[in-house]
Every structure is written in structure tokens, then in C-alpha cells.
Amino acid sequence: MQKSNKKSSEVSKLLFTSWDIPPALKSPNVCCFVIGESVSFFGSWMTQIALVWMVYQITNSVMLVGIVGFTNQFMGLIITPLVGVYLDRWNLRYVLLTTQLVSILLSSTLTFLTINSHITVTWIIIIGIMQGTVKAFDLPARLVTHILHQEKLM
């Protein structure tokens, strides 16, 4: 009996030795950060897809779908180069918390307007512009945080 247990433990050791957890993922802070990042990106993409889909459902206009998608991305293209200067001076933790709270507020506003049947293409474009502005602050702050902490995790 003991030999079979010994064999099975050796087999399981061989099986799981290739599944070594990277040192960074052993840290609870990094695990929380990765989970939070995943949920946040998922929520951002859901909102972006919802905006475009709602425009198409309301108007059946492909041109307005393109305009909404453009306005969502365009603000990021304009503001992101300027944001880097400010991110060097601001507390990145507060920037990330603020951008996440504003994203939640924008998604909640979109939900409220949709449920109460007050949603229009104008509201969708305004929310898209604001969401693009928030992403212009959020994404560079995430990258800077990742680069700063990368040396500590290795």
C-alpha cells in the first residue's frame, strides 16, 4: 500500500512541477490587482459594446454606430499624451480609484436612462465621450503602476 501511495505522489509531483506559480502571483496584493483589473476591463468593454449596440437598436444607422465608436476612442487619442505629464505628479492609487468610480457612475447613468426609457443618441454620445476621457486617464495610470512595481516582483 505504501508503495502505491509513494508512486502516486511522485506522479502528482511530476504532473504539477510544470505548473509553478510565478512569484508575483503569490502576493495577495498582486492577486487582488489582477482580479480587479480583469473585472474592470470586462466592465469597460461591456459598456463600450452596450453603447454601440444601443445606438444601432435605436436608430438602425451604421453611420451613427461609427460616430459613437469614434467619439469613445477619439477623446483618448487627444488627451492621453497630455495625461502622462499629470500622472507623474499625482498619486496613482487615487487616480485609479477615481477613474473606476467615474466609470461606475457613467455605467449606472447609462443603465438608469435605459431603464427609464430616456436614452437618446445624444446621451449615448455624451457618455461615450466621458467614458473615453476616463479611459485616457485610467489606462496610462495602470501601465505606470505595472512598470513601477515590476522590479519589486522579480
Automatic annotation (TrEMBL):
Pfam families in the record: MFS_3 (PF05977)
GO cellular component: plasma membrane
Keywords: Cell membrane, Membrane, Transmembrane, Transmembrane helix, Transport
Superkingdom of the source species: Bacteria
Bilayer topology: Multi-pass membrane protein
Classification via InterPro entries: MFS_trans_sf (IPR036259), TM_effector (IPR010290)
TM segment ranges: 30-56, 62-87
Coarse class of the protein's main subcellular location: membrane
Cell location: Cell membrane
Record PANTHER family: INTEGRAL MEMBRANE EFFLUX PROTEIN-RELATED, STAPHYLOFERRIN A TRANSPORTER
Name of the protein in question: MFS transporter
Organism of origin: Nostoc sphaeroides CCNUC1
Organism taxonomic ancestry: Bacteria, Bacillati, Cyanobacteriota, Cyanophyceae, Nostocales
